[in-house]
């Protein structure tokens, strides 16, 4: 199946999609591609908020322009964040093994990376909202919903990876 269909199907049948995506043999190139794709979508989700910030601070001394904001965000989300997500996956694997899980480190990485990619449409919506209305109760509520949805999906995928 296509990637976008699998992303949407993950919200209806997360265990089946994850098992199919996990495959038989570990493919680290596939895991890295999924992670980089998720990080790139998170970067795109930041564009409206960055444009809003650049517009609202235009003309102020020492205010970075839109290009500077986008460059910093590109470096942070597409180049630095994957390293942190690999470290987080390692920590999640150690916790899961400590709790009696029998999954592999690769399965844990795939669970985290796939949860990030599946949550990307929600993050894109949150980014659009941040650009249109800015900070406030609505953005905070959407952020909480996105975070809870991601954590729930990650818990289901980790359960599938370690205790199926």
Describe this structure in words.
- This protein is mainly α.
- About 80% of the residues lie in helices and about 0% in strands.
- The chain has one domain.
- The protein has helices at about 5-10, 15-20, 30-55, 65-100, 105-135, 135-164.
- Helix 2 (about 15-20) packs across helix 6 (about 135-164).
- The longest helix is centred in the middle third of the chain and has 33 residues, at about 65-100.
- The two termini are about 25 Å apart.
- The relative contact order is 0.16.
- The model has no long low-confidence stretch (mean pLDDT about 90).
**What is the overall shape?**
elongated
**Tally of DSSP β-strands:** 0
Supply Rg.
17 Å
Quickly count the helices. 6
Mean pLDDT: 92
Order of helices and strands: HHHHHH
Strand content: under 5%
Q: How far apart are the termini?
A: 23 Å
Helix content: over 70%
List keywords for this structure.
single chain; 164 residues; mainly alpha; 6 helices; 82% helix; 0% strand
How are the secondary structure elements laid out?
Layout lengths: L2 H7 L4 H9 L5 H29 L9 H33 L6 H29 L3 H27 L1
Helix pairs in contact: 2-6, 3-4, 3-5, 4-5, 5-6
Quick structural gist:
The protein is mainly alpha-helical. Helix content is 82%, strand content 0%.
């Amino acid at each position: 199946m296509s990637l976008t269909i699998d992303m949407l199907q993950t919200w209806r049948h997360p265990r089946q999609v994850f098992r199919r995506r996990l495959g038989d043999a570990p493919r680290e190139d596939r895991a890295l591609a999924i992670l980089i794709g998720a990080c790139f979508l998170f970067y795109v989700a930041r564009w409206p908020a960055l444009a809003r910030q650049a517009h609202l601070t235009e003309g102020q001394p020492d205010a970075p322009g839109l290009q500077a904001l986008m460059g910093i965000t590109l470096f942070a989300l597409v180049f630095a964040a994957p390293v942190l997500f690999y470290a987080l996956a390692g920590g999640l694997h150690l916790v899961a093994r400590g709790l009696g899980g029998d999954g592999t480190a690769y399965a844990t990485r795939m669970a985290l990376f796939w949860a990030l990619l599946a949550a990307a449409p929600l993050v894109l919506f949150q980014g659009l909202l941040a650009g249109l209305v800015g900070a406030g109760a609505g953005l905070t509520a959407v952020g909480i919903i996105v975070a809870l949805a991601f954590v729930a999906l990650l818990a289901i995928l980790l359960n599938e990876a370690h205790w199926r």
